[in-house]
Amino acid sequence: MASNKRTPTIKDIARIANVSTATVSRILNGQPGYGDATRERVEAAIAQQGYTRNAVARGLVQKRTHTIGVLLPSVTSQFASELLGGIETEAHSHQYSAIVCNTDRNGERTAEYLNVLAEKQVDGIVFTSEFLTDEYEHLAERLNVPIVLVSTMSERYQIPYVRVDDQKAAFAAVSYLVERGHRRIGMVAGTENDPIAGKLRVNGYREALDTSGIDFRQDYISYGDFHFALGKQAAVNLLDRAPEITAIFAASDEMAVGVISAAWERGLGIPEDLSVIGYDDTAMAMMATPPLTAVHQPIATMGRLAVRMLIEGRNEGVVLPFSITERSSVGNRA
Amino acid sequence: MASNKRTPTIKDIARIANVSTATVSRILNGQPGYGDATRERVEAAIAQQGYTRNAVARGLVQKRTHTIGVLLPSVTSQFASELLGGIETEAHSHQYSAIVCNTDRNGERTAEYLNVLAEKQVDGIVFTSEFLTDEYEHLAERLNVPIVLVSTMSERYQIPYVRVDDQKAAFAAVSYLVERGHRRIGMVAGTENDPIAGKLRVNGYREALDTSGIDFRQDYISYGDFHFALGKQAAVNLLDRAPEITAIFAASDEMAVGVISAAWERGLGIPEDLSVIGYDDTAMAMMATPPLTAVHQPIATMGRLAVRMLIEGRNEGVVLPFSITERSSVGNRA
DNA sequence: TTGTATGCGTTATCAT
DNA sequence: ATGATAACGCATACAA
């Protein structure tokens, strides 16, 4: 049913207002060079014709599309959507649009998207992934489009990023548990071969144990993939083989909720029988029962900062501060 | 640091391969009309130059951008992100990209976005909102871009939509409670003046009560805005003024989790002391403690269908079936 | 099978 | 203050 009345162009406006397209363009863009009278004529024509500028034509000549691409491992996770929220907000405030791409943690899709975004001439790309493989990094270099990494970083290339210090944050989380009297502390970790969010958080866990003179035990750590299902499964396994544990550090909120769920199923009260601390402090931490104590990452801020860096052409690595949001999932051990 | 080596164009390739740009274009688009030899020469040049097509130039001539716009009231809600997931997946499978727009339930922003999307020449728009005001609807008509509404509909215009029957679904949810012996059933409703998701679900609630010969009581219904904070507050109010209630129907999962949270704070066990049924069946229903029984909407499917309708130019209203996903938040009342 | 030429809607340069 | 006109990178109708 799409009506096929041709959309009026700048030419139509020019003809109707009896001026050149150049003048219309100037008026449209608030540039100097015309009298009040002509401006009014042109504006009248624009209003009367219901003229809408064509951003693709403009993009062609200006070589800028005012559009950025966003690569996410999965749009549906709470972390990703809060990040996207920050990105979109900042983009919009600078008159940019954001194209979302769900890589699904799939290398092929990621490569496809990188190409599509390049073809669409986006002005920049925000890349979040559980981790960057050499392949993408290489492609990213080749594409000649500015990129900012969020919550990850490249080990090989100099690509700007914004993240928090995962190891330090994990260290703080586990220390928080220790300070409350816990000694038998388990960990539900993220993806095992993720060099950043995976490895570093485990490192922080070990380091905190070390510093407190607690022996690290391999069987006190169970791996998931940052998400609920596997996190819960990891918790089940962990609780099975080490029921003496009094607290668990989960490498993501989703997995923390997974351990709450696993604990609930076996009748363990939180925090009476088991304490749990999450990581991210997404909205779901607040909504959990009981409300989840968690390491707070400024997720939306990270997204906003990333697009600001893109737009301003800043080429740096920035690490943002974290904190711990206290709620009701961690108890004291006398 | 952006290297300023000019991106090779179709002309460069043509020159290098000693053919015309027309031939390069044909090869690039898999059209007939060239010999193997020339194709190989051209392909070699393309590979060697690292040529990337320019989608904006192509968009200009073809008047199609292979891009759709998505208007969401808030990217961060679980409902929205699952919907976006479906939309993005389907779009990508048809070689389309999706631009996300966070309207923030703000009329001005919505209007802005509608304009931006029109300027960017998107091939279609998926619109979700808590409800459509006349203003947007009018603008939407004027813009001359195909639109599909998700989970809402227009009362005034003939705009294609995909949704489920809110009233019937709410009816089913409340009937489910009644069947399990509940008679004093409260409701935590959504936005009061939302004519679709708000009003219709309340209607279904009342209708189910009616059918079961249970008197409707105005004080058994408390309004939120579909989200956690207000949902929880509504539950607190409801529980304060009607502690005799044995079950609550929440108009969204988020609000259902809010009532779980409110119940937890006052030591009410779920489902022993209070049953609750949610609406949407987003991922958070599964993650709740206890796992939430909820009306299931095929959210991702709705998103996928919406973009398919856009792409295929279908101009209809479709209502999808719902179901009830049983988990552990509803108990029997003897 | 291949090339020429024109146009898509704008911006921008150079005149006037 | 205003107008011609040449790009921008590509697709396509028409020739050859």
Order of helices and strands of chain A: HHHHEHEHEHEEHEHEHEHEHEHEE
Low-confidence stretches of chain A: none
Number of helices of chain A: 13
Average pLDDT number of chain A: 95
Q: What would you call the structural class of chain A?
A: alpha/beta
Distance between the termini of chain A: 72 Å
What percentage of residues of chain A falls in helices of 4 or more residues? 40-55%
- The count of β-strands of chain A is 12
The general outline of chain A is elongated
* Biggest interchain interface, per-side counts: A-B, 64 and 64 residues
Query: Nearest-angstrom radius of gyration of chain A?
Result: 26 Å
Oligomer: homodimer
Task: Give the name of the CATH superfamily of the largest domain in chain A.
Answer: Response regulator
Strand content of chain A: 15-25%
CATH architecture of the largest domain in chain A: 3-Layer(aba) Sandwich
Into how many domains do the coordinates of chain A divide? 2
Order of strands across the main sheet of chain A? 2-1-3-4-5-11
**CATH fold type of the largest domain in chain A:** Rossmann fold
What top-tier CATH class of the largest domain in chain A fits best? Alpha Beta
| Main sheet attributes: strand count, strand direction, barrel closure of chain A | 6 strands, parallel
